[in-house]
## 1
Amino acid sequence: MEIEVKLSPVPQCIAEEILGRDELFICETTVYTMEADYFDTPDGKLKKEGLSLRLRRENERSVCCLKYRVSELARFEAEENATDIQSGVTALCARDDLPESAKDVLRSAELVPIYSSSFERKCRLMVEGLSLIELSFDYGVLKQENRLLFISEIELELKEGNDYDLLELTERLCNEYSIRPCKDTKAQRAAALTEEAFAKMLPVPGDALGVNDMFSGLFFAKTDGDKLTFYRKV
């Protein structure tokens, strides 16, 4: 079970300031390069069942992961080492803790890559109250075909302890740095990068945007070769 809170958007300077507060943490920063492909059927069968399936490269490790939400804070999460999606699904379906209903969906699904993510993750562990919490800062991009959303966000994951300490830490960071929680997962935001969604947006001059604007979650982008065009919802 994964219990976490996401704070997004978080400007890079604020995230780096928090990570640099050594008195908060019990270890040094660990850095990962994350690249993931998310899979579904062409008609979105997994999404309809509330499932999120990805194959992610974490530095030198390749992991297949299945998630689904069980409460506002908690998600079921199952991970298996795998170099391709089919071997990952086979390993997931062999697990005793995965519901048979989820296994049936995975076994019958004709999976194709739908969207992807690519970002750098910086992590540090802290003790909050009676709990062990991992703070991760993710900085990168979500992509569906040629449509992009740049992300700059913090995840607070409860490794040991209780929800109360996690929520106390969340509230303190939000108040101190004027940042806010975000309920949408990376998969949900990547799934929303559809051509239909972009058809309802207005182009924005790229030279009018600063770096924090691009990573604010308010602006979207399309690539055309080396050209990058930004958009904003109406």
## 2
Amino acid sequence: MVARVCAGLGVSHATLAVKVEPGNVQAEARAARYTALAQWMERDGLDALATAHHADDQAETLLLRLNRGSGVAGLAGVRGRGHVPGTRRPLLRPVLGWRRSELAEVVSAMGLTPVADPSNTDDRFDRARIRKALAKAEWLDVAALAASAAHLADADAALEWAAQREWAECVERAPLGLTYRPQAPRAVALRVLARIVTELDGTAPRGSAVARVFDALVARQPASIGGLVARALPEGWSFNRATQRRA
């Protein structure tokens, strides 16, 4: 259908086939789409990718993540500018401030009929249930929810700036790892801890695991995360790779 519309408008179009891995269908499908798009950009020498995420998507994302207990970074939702996952190529969302209904009116004015994706109303998916609940709650202001996500994105940027400064001033190389002398509030220190784990262990840790390590170190107790051991020492919190035992 999209190919036919693009052909009628004289717009270049490509249809990309993807393989969706088992598991969380929507999450795996999203990952497969972005992987295919990144490969397409590389192949055709494209400089940026634009998606059609809109204000209703943003409001749904905020409510979904509130329900999951997400932190500031998660509650900030999708951003107007970012990077295609797994690459440094720009990802743009030019209609993030528009409502779904407004975009439908634009499409209708062009003489086109919007396609209704069946998965958008499939109650097996959390987002579909949130979407239905949001539609019934007339007292909720979708535009205001989307604006709140934008404000949280500003807060997230401020925390990230503070975390980078904390890293530069309070993290030092040690013979077997890194030492951190925390000075900032908990929200900033958690980001520094996550960066330490990523740098030493090579994988991004879950937020709950980082919080557990932080609480243990504040209580002067040792803790482990991934392949690392963390200890509270007089000179600061030390993070070293765990010693591999020989069989």
## 3
Amino acid sequence: MKKIFYAAALALLSFCIPANKKITIFMAGDSTMAIKETKAYPETGWGMPFVYFWDSTVSIVNKAKNGRSTKTFISEGLWQSIIDNVQEGDYVFIQFGHNDESKEKKERYATPDTFRMNLTRIIRETREKKGIPVLFTPVSRRKFDTTGVALPTHAEYDAYVKEVAEKEQVIFIDLDTKSRDLYQQVGKEPSKLLFMQLKPGEHPNYPDGRDDNTHFSETGARLIAQLVLKEIREKVPDLASHIYHPKVK
């Protein structure tokens, strides 16, 4: 009789204790985060290696896209495609600024007020769906002075991101500062390896070479993704508990 009772109790518990809830991390951003087409290789958005850090309970939906600002991300429906699918407990990573600050490209440019308003909208709509927004400053470009000091490249729009993060009390990752610290640590010349710095004939996709201090190589994207992971371990412990840990034999 006792065996029957324990079996019934265990069966009841199996219904009461839910399996690990699936979590989705949605990524909203620009080309520095985006998935790249094969023809762009070796250009790599940091969101690409980022998918390999997680256990089976986490899915990544990377909606970041080349050339997008908060303005065009919203107007083109990319934001709507995220918010329509956010569920309670999901995360939305928000990284903009590169294109919002491009005054010469009117279709992308977002004034400071519009930029702050758009970020605030994304954060609040995420929370309305009981999702968890994580706000990033734009990842730094590679720029050094003559003495080898890595220089800020998004000072104005960084300040707006920080302002919104403080006002909305949102999880905040200062990726601009962290990435610039990385370039400084690597050094002025070696840091070229983190970016799309190619000599003519070095890669078939870029026969004329490329001199690009904004977009990452595979190595650069992986190191930026690792920076983000380190910040998540410190600032988002609930999410960090889902980081994949290989079993040591």
